[in-house]
UniProtKB/TrEMBL annotation:
CDD domains (alphabetical): trans_reg_C
MF annotations from Gene Ontology: phosphorelay response regulator activity; transcription cis-regulatory region binding
Record-level GO cellular component terms: cytosol; protein-DNA complex
SMART domains (UniProt xref): REC, Trans_reg_C
InterPro entries tied to this protein: CheY-like_superfamily (IPR011006), OmpR/PhoB-type_DNA-bd (IPR001867), Response_regulator (IPR022305), Sig_transdc_resp-reg_C-effctor (IPR016032), Sig_transdc_resp-reg_receiver (IPR001789), WalR-like (IPR039420), WH-like_DNA-bd_sf (IPR036388)
Record organism: Salinimonas sediminis
Transmembrane segments: none
Superkingdom classification of source: Bacteria
Modified positions (4-aspartylphosphate) in chain numbering: D53
Pfam families: Response_reg, Trans_reg_C
Start-end of DNA-binding region: 133-229
UniProt record, GO biological process: regulation of DNA-templated transcription
Native organism taxonomy: Bacteria, Pseudomonadati, Pseudomonadota, Gammaproteobacteria, Alteromonadales
Stated name of the protein: Proteobacterial dedicated sortase system response regulator
Domain Response regulatory: 4-120
Length: 229
């Protein structure tokens, strides 16, 4: 049965373009132009995944409100914020409200589809009974690659899909520097250096929130980043 994706976007041209592109990939798409219409639909039936613009018509943070509503209805439904805005305040606010990933509208369709597929994969894996899986353990860090989960000192670290694959790239060879290009390649994304830096900062912050002494992600200026054991 085809997966259902809800697309909440107030720009008619963008809404139509992405609806057609997602349908071409075999997804059923429910498209909404504003928060009230989407909210009413979600109260009746939930999609399998939601892609939500932050600014909706005259509501500058309508997408945030919609995300909160969805999280009250389901703790596991994958949610992607999709927006023209790219700054740490928006991103952190969105992720705190329960979004799984945050993408800007300049990303390629291939990147968006990769994020959607990864979220569906994680959702499917988390629904399965616990089973033997591929894991990486480095001291207090445990990364379950099969289930796409991360724990630090036995506490879960809530990483987005993009952040998960960036961390995975760093820990595959501890102590070895990963360039920004390598991080982009391994996380299947095409963005500028500033966006990579923002992702790394957010990963660090999430670990520091659990451990004030966390200092395992090093910046090697002019080159990239590495995980120090």
């Amino acid at each position: 049965m085809p997966r259902t994706i809800a697309l909440v976007e107030d720009d008619a041209a963008i809404r139509e373009n992405y609806t057609l592109a997602l349908q071409a990939q075999g997804y059923q798409v429910q498209a909404y132009a504003d928060r009230p219409r989407a909210a009413a639909a979600f109260d009746t039936a939930l999609p399998d995944l939601a892609i939500i613009d932050i600014g909706l018509v005259d509501e500058m943070e309508g997408g945030f409100k919609l995300c909160q509503q969805l999280r009250q209805l389901s703790q596991t439904l994958p949610i992607i914020f999709f927006t023209a805005r790219d700054n740490d305040v928006d991103t952190i606010s969105g992720l705190r409200m329960g979004a799984d990933d945050y993408l800007t509208k300049d990303i390629s369709m291939a990147h968006l589809l990769a994020r959607i597929a990864a979220l569906f994969r994680r959702t499917d894996l988390l629904a399965l009974p616990q089973q033997q899986s591929e894991q990486i353990r480095l001291g207090e860090l445990l990364v379950d690659i099969s289930r796409m989960t991360v724990t630090w000192r036995l506490q879960p670290v809530a990483l987005t899909v993009t952040e998960f694959w960036m961390l995975h790239a760093l820990i595959r060879r501890p102590g070895h520097v990963k360039s920004r290009q390598q991080l982009m390649d391994e996380s299947q994304m095409v963005v500028d250096d500033t966006t990579i830096t923002s992702h790394i900062k957010r990963i660090r912050k999430k670990f520091v929130q659990l451990d004030n002494d966390f200092e395992h992600i090093d910046t090697v200026y002019g080159i990239g980043y590495r995980w120090q054991g």
